[in-house]
Automatic annotation (TrEMBL):
Residues 301-510 form the AB hydrolase-1 domain. This is Pimeloyl-ACP methyl ester carboxylesterase. It comes from the Bacteria. Transmembrane segments: none annotated. The lineage of its organism: Bacteria, Pseudomonadati, Pseudomonadota, Alphaproteobacteria, Rhodobacterales. Pfam families: Abhydrolase_1 (PF00561). It comes from Allgaiera indica.
Length: 528
């Protein structure tokens, strides 16, 4: 049986990747350092591509000003390929043109300024139009036999502007042979002449391709998804802060209840419990969520400290606008560092801080356990920030494919029975994979941004807090071992540690009704 080369064994990240991929893919993986090496321009191209074309039904790719292909899928999906290089003909002034390359027809569109978020190095968008798609894009698609491969290639060359003689020469065929073949094509399309067919096909294909490609004004996709999942149980707001940042805020539960500002985990911005709204209303709790994955100011390139500081200011403005006093802050998993930073910068706005499934804040205290995957990836980013793009690319590629995401999560949580049970429930809910795919396509940097923020010395901020802190941790959390978090809690003068049995890293989802009751029973707490 084939085995991975010894040099490719090692990190938890790589082991997880190997466990997820089909064996043929896993055996062909390059060394980890090569896998993670990505340039900033490549990252910008991928982010733009997935934000704008992930839901497009056409086969799309991007090319830069040097004619270099920009999108190379991390996981081959059996889709038709694109040439490594391609160029818009100099004789094409209209912005749209057809070209034939590698025995296939491509539609090129070089007006990339139509997209506000298009990176400056991009030159054009390419769409591959195969033999099945070409007639389907026209109004007069053949009612009889489909185009043969030979007929498709001839029609492709004619659409590129070649006359019949030149097209025959390009295909290595005689003029007379191709003249007869044109008549067969005309008969299939029911066209009166070659000129009429080419004119109508050009217009129809161009219109349909551009309709599929060009951006449309629409509501933010994350708002659409949360409304589809929760319906009338969620209120979607947008607050414009003093520095001009539009901050989305989602509200669940009692509209005039005790406010809880929830800093969500890395996986999704919502809690996967069908009874979430009901439990919140029962305990008169108002659940406020800012889906930080989808904040442009918090997910683009630039200094992480500046982005965190800007978001903290915007959150403070939002809390002051929506509530009448201090709130209960709750951070879960990767959201812990965000919650701590917020309370440290805005002590007057927080009356109590809950930290659930707190990530490992330091190297392992026990050599037998070693660092968690959070700590391991954090160390990679700390040592070489250039791997950020490569890590995000791999994470997003897996998240876009439910089968691979399912395998990866099962591998990560394989030693925690409560977490595996929770995951199996999540897997049965379609919105779960919708969230993973949306975050991977729209918030492409968010996964590694979360890990990067964990490095921003949140532990020092935590030790400087004056408000009460409650750690809640699953006894069977293998992602962040509870013993280390309990030691941390014991070192703080105003903290308590609650170890929950029959719970893992998803302790909040697993015991949400008990958590809600605990928060509701706290003294004080402003309402509204």
């Amino acid at each position: 049986m084939s085995q991975l080369p010894p040099r490719q064994r090692g990190s938890q990240f790589f082991q997880t990747l190997v466990s997820v991929l089909p064996r043929s893919h896993a055996l062909s993986l390059p060394p980890e350092e090569d896998l993670l090496e990505r340039s900033e321009l490549e990252t910008m191209s991928e982010r733009f591509f997935h934000r704008n074309f992930a839901e497009c039904d056409l086969f799309v790719n991007l090319y830069d000003r040097f004619g270099m292909r920009q999108i190379d899928p991390f996981i081959a999906e059996g889709k038709p390929g694109f040439p490594a290089t391609m160029a818009v003909p100099a004789s094409s002034p209209s912005g749209c043109t057809f070209v034939v390359a590698e025995a296939a027809l491509f539609f090129l569109y070089d007006r990339v300024a139509q997209w506000d978020d298009a990176p400056g190095h991009l030159a054009f968008v390419a769409v591959r139009i195969g033999p099945e798609l070409l007639p389907a894009l026209g109004d007069g698609a053949p009612a009889g036999p489909a185009l043969s491969r030979s007929e498709y290639l001839l029609l492709s060359h004619l659409l590129c502007g070649e006359n019949l003689k030149a097209a025959a020469a390009s295909l290595g065929a005689s003029y007379d042979t191709k003249r007869k073949q044109v008549q067969l094509i005309l008969d299939k399309f029911g066209a009166a002449s070659q000129t009429a067919l080419l004119r109508s096909l050009t217009l129809e294909v161009t219109a349909r391709v551009l309709d599929a490609l060009l951006p449309r004004q629409r509501r933010r996709p994350e708002a659409q998804l949360v409304k589809r999942q929760f319906g009338r149980d969620v209120v979607v707001n947008t607050i414009t802060t003093d520095d001009g940042l539009d901050l989305p805020v989602w509200e669940f539960g009692a509209r005039r209840g005790r406010p809880i500002l929830y800093f969500h985990n890395m996986l999704t911005p919502v809690v996967f419990r069908d009874d979430l709204p009901e439990v919140l209303r029962r305990h008169n709790l108002r659940w406020l969520v800012v889906p930080r994955h989808f904040l442009d100011a918090a997910s683009g390139p630039g200094d992480t400290d500046l982005r965190v500081a800007r978001l903290m200011r915007a959150l403070a403005d939002t809390v002051a606008h929506l509530t009448d006093g201090p709130v209960t802050c709750l951070g879960e998993s990767a959201g812990v560092s965000w919650a701590v930073h917020f309370v440290r910068r805005n002590p007057d706005l927080a009356e109590h801080l809950f930290l659930l499934a707190t990530p490992q804040p330091m190297p392992s205290l026990d050599d037998a356990h070693g660092p968690t995957i959070y700590a391991e990836i954090s160390d990679k980013l700390r040592r070489d920030a250039r791997v950020t793009a490569g890590l995000a690319r791999v994470y997003n590629a897996l998240a876009r494919v439910p089968t691979l995401a399912r395998r990866g999560l099962r591998h990560l949580y394989r030693q925690s029975p409560p977490d595996l049970a929770t995951l199996e429930k999540m897997f049965t809910q379609a919105p779960f994979f919708d969230w993973l795919r949306l975050i991977a396509n729209v918030a492409t940097r968010s996964s590694m941004e979360e890990i990067t923020v964990l490095q921003r010395n949140w532990l020092a901020d935590l030790r400087a807090l004056n408000c009460a802190v409650t750690f809640i941790h699953g006894a069977q959390d293998t992602i962040s071992p509870p013993d280390e978090i309990e030691i941390l809690a014991d070192s703080l003068p105003v903290a308590e540690f609650l170890r929950i049995e029959n719970a893992g890293h998803f302790v909040m989802s697993q015991h949400f009704p008990a958590l809600a009751a605990h928060i509701a029973a706290l003294p004080g707490g402003q309402v509204g």
